[in-house]
Specification:
This protein has 223 residues and is of the alpha/beta class. It folds into two domains: 11-22 and 91-222, Rossmann fold, CATH 3.40.50; 24-88. Helices cover 44% and strands 13% of the residues. A six-stranded parallel sheet has the order 5-4-1-6-7-8. It has a two-stranded antiparallel sheet with strand order 2-3. The relative contact order is 0.20.
Length: 223
C-alpha cells in the first residue's frame, strides 16, 4: 500500500488546474459551451469526470460532435470561455498554509499540463509564488518529461519525489518515470475518485492532508 516505505521524499510537485486551483466548474462550463456551439446535448458533469482524458477529442466525438471539429476549434471555444470566467478560479482551502510548511522542508514545484487560468495572477494574488522552487506550465498531456526535468534540477531520484494530481493521465505519467503518484481525490477534481484510485493507493482529498501523508511516511521510516 505504501510504495515509498523506506524512501526519503525530497520534492513535492503539484498539478495546478483542479488540484491547487479549484476550477472544475469553469472547465465544465467550457464543455457546455462547446456543445452549445455545435448544437449537441451536453454530457452530464458526472460523465465528464468519469470519461474525459488527455485525449479529449475521443470524449467529444463519443458524444456526437462532428468529425470535422478539430482540437484547435474546441480549444478556441474553451480558451474564450476561460478568459471570460477565470476570475472564478480559486486557490484550494488550506493550500497557502500547507505550501508555506512544505517549503520549509522540501523542494516544492508545479508541473501542469496546461495553463487555462492566469497562473501568475493566482500565485501572486494569494502570495504563494515564493513557495515554489520550479514551475513548469504547458507541460503537455504527458508530464513525464517535465517531472524528470524537476528530478534533474533538484538532484533527487524520481522515487524521492511525489506528484499530486487530480487526473489519471497525470498520475500515470508520474508512475511511468518512477515518481510517487498521489491522487487528489476531491469532489471538484477533474477525474472521479474511482478512476484515480485505479492508478495509486495514495490519495488526499484536501491539500492540507499532505502533512498527514508525509508524517505517516516519516513514522514508517523509523519503524
Amino acid at each position: 500500500m505504501f510504495p515509498w516505505r523506506g524512501m526519503s521524499t525530497k520534492t513535492i510537485i503539484f498539478d495546478l488546474n483542479g488540484t491547487l486551483i479549484d476550477d472544475l466548474h469553469i472547465s465544465y462550463g467550457s464543455v457546455k459551451e462547446i456543445f452549445r456551439v455545435y448544437g449537441k446535448p451536453c454530457p452530464t458533469f458526472e460523465q465528464y469526470r468519469e470519461e474525459v482524458s488527455a485525449d479529449f477529442m475521443k470524449f467529444y466525438y463519443r458524444y456526437k460532435l462532428p468529425i470535422t471539429a478539430t482540437k484547435d476549434d474546441l480549444n478556441a471555444i474553451r480558451g474564450k470561455f476561460y478568459k471570460s470566467h477565470e476570475i472564478g478560479a480559486r486557490l484550494r482551502p488550506g493550500a497557502h498554509r500547507t505550501l508555506e510548511w512544505l517549503n520549509k522542508f522540501f523542494y516544492v514545484a508545479i508541473v501542469s499540463a496546461e495553463i487555462t487560468t492566469n497562473l501568475y495572477r493566482i500565485l501572486i494574488e494569494n502570495g504563494i509564488q515564493k513557495n515554489f522552487d520550479f514551475i513548469k506550465p504547458e507541460a503537455g498531456a504527458n508530464k513525464s518529461k517535465a517531472l524528470l526535468q524537476a528530478s534533474e534540477i533538484f538532484g533527487c531520484a524520481p522515487q524521492d519525489m511525489m506528484y499530486v494530481d487530480d487526473t489519471v493521465d497525470g498520475l500515470e505519467s508520474a508512475k511511468t518515470v518512477g515518481v510517487v503518484p498521489v491522487a487528489f481525490a476531491n469532489p471538484t477534481g477533474y477525474n472521479s475518485e474511482r478512476r484515480l484510485l485505479e492508478v495509486t493507493d495514495l490519495d488526499i482529498s484536501e491539500i492540507g492532508e499532505m502533512k498527514e501523508l508525509l508524517e505517516l511516511q516519516r513514522r514508517l521510516q523509523v519503524v
